[in-house]
Amino acid sequence: MTKNAAWPEGSFLDSLATGVLATDPKGKIVYANAASEILSGASKNRLLGISAEAVFPSARRWTERFLSDTVRGEPTLTERTEMFCPSNPTESRKVRVTVSRFPGTGGILMEVSDLGAVLIAENEAQKVGLSETSRQVLRNLAHEIKNPLGGIRGAAQLLEGELTNPELREYTGVIISEADRLQNLVDRLLAPYRTGRSLSDINIHEVLERVRQIILAEFPKGLSFIRDYDVSVPTLRGDREQLLQVFLNIEKNAAEALDGKIAEGTAEIRVITRVAQQVQIGLRRYRLALSIHIQDNGPGVPPEIRDRIFYPLVTGKANGSGLGLSLAQNFIRQHDGSIDVESEPGKTDFRILLPLSPPETGDISPA
């Protein structure tokens, strides 16, 4: 079949993770992008020229509905449905299909998304919203706390100067020390939002080696570092101090969780770097990204906090503040990256993705 001139080779649609198929007025497919081949399980040569009904049984109904005379004046009419892709039975892949009328061919346009990937992206977006809301509430709360906290401390100091009873002065000392502790906590909450970013070209392995030296200085015995670095990783554009803080927070948490194994001499932290190709981060697709895994053989993240581990003030440590991983997530997002964790007893794996190339044309719309 002759290719439609409206769809030249190398179209930006081939860079999308969303499948795009277009039909003529009779329902025959005249265009299919690269992702549609993966999602349908059929090659482009096989798709072009066949009836859309051979791929999606509902296509006849879609054609009748969207191309009927009664809806020709409704250009925004769309339909969304979820189904298993019948032309790809071995994959048993469930897809989400959004259908609309497409004047470019006089037929219909079908946008096909892997339902699993869409739900993951939507869930991540929801978590981002909740986490950012939590951080905003904390920032506002921190500002509201600072002024009365200073007043309480000042009043306690004045009262301490008037007291002659040593036992009573102990009480004012407690007030002052607790006020200082709360002040430090508030400062830590606000610190990430006070400093600007300083971007430069970074050798990520130099950052990781610096973090390793810091951790081993604090835990010199019983802890082994296993480095599995990909030496082909190119430089990364980012804020060196922010990224150093990210890996320091994660690896220090890991080392502290390994205290029992450190005593036995069996504690391990493994750091893996790789270059990943054609990676989806959020709703964007990147040709190249840096994948970093930080793994430990500790007891794992407690199940009751696993889904909230990146939220501010959520911690599994008795004396933890719950700010380290929240801060790490915030810094990674400032680099347009993502961070997630998988954990079970004996293995916790933090995975970080950081773009190494600009996003490809067009976001991945959860069609």
Brief rundown of the structure:
39% of the residues lie in helices and 25% in strands. The chain has 367 residues and is α+β, with helices and mostly antiparallel strands. It has two domains: 12-115, Beta-Lactamase (2-Layer Sandwich), CATH 3.30.450; 197-367, Heat Shock Protein 90 (2-Layer Sandwich).
Descriptive overview:
- The protein has helices spanning 34-40, 44-47, 59-66, 115-162, 166-190, 204-218, 240-257, 259-264, 324-334, and strands at residues 19-23, 29-32, 78-84, 94-102, 107-114, 199-202, 223-228, 236-239, 267-281, 284-296, 338-344, 347-355.
- The radius of gyration is 28 Å and the shape is elongated.
- The chain is built from 9 helices and 12 strands.
- The two termini are 28 Å apart.
- The relative contact order is 0.11.
- A 5-stranded antiparallel beta sheet has the order 2-1-5-4-3.
- Helix 7 (240-257) packs antiparallel against helix 9 (324-334).
- With 367 residues, it is α+β, with helices and mostly antiparallel strands.
- It folds into 2 domains: 12-115, PAS domain (Beta-Lactamase, 2-Layer Sandwich); 197-367, Histidine kinase-like ATPase, C-terminal domain (Heat Shock Protein 90, 2-Layer Sandwich).
